[in-house]
Amino acid sequence: WKTKEGLVRGCACRGTAGFSHVSCLAEQAKILFAEAEENNLGVEAANTRWRRWDTCSLCEQDYHGVVCCALGWACWKTYVGRPEMDNARCFAINVLGDGLFVANHCEDALTVREAELSMERRRGASEEHILAVQGNLAATYQKLRRFEETSQMLRDVYSGHLRLHGEENIQTISNANNYAVSLNGLQRFEEAKALLRKMIPVARRVL
């Protein structure tokens, strides 16, 4: 059938591979995930099929730019009518936030990320998942050059991982480093040095 919609390619495919209409990519993702739900194919199969919303089925690379953003909106529009406790709706708001972020629509991405965090707290999501959402929110603040809020959020993420996993954990060490970098950027050098002096010996033992 004919359409005025242009062909796009927002992945790592080369040559003639990877070109498609955004609407076709969205329809494929919608159908694949619906089949997984309807046929009870299990969590692994459902997750693999869900990846079609943000990953090319040919090169297996994430979509980027306007293609990622367009698929984010298509994904959200597909599942927004579901109840808030529905997992697909939860995943969809994350896909939308990612799409807006990579397309540099950062103010819109911030609104979505903040809504996602509030929603996940209402849903009673695990602390691990909350920390992941907060990490995305910190990255969005960073891109908007809202550095004080970036640092505050990174502090919360680091503290959360420290509480959950202890200091001898790769995620804790990584998030401590992120927080220290943010402190350094704010010229809070003594705080950054104190944190790094604490974590460097730990990193040497663990890494």
UniProtKB/TrEMBL annotation:
InterPro entries: TPR-like_helical_dom_sf
Gene3D superfamilies: Tetratricopeptide repeat domain (1.25.40.10)
Pfam families: TPR_12
Name this protein carries in UniProt: RING-CH-type domain-containing protein
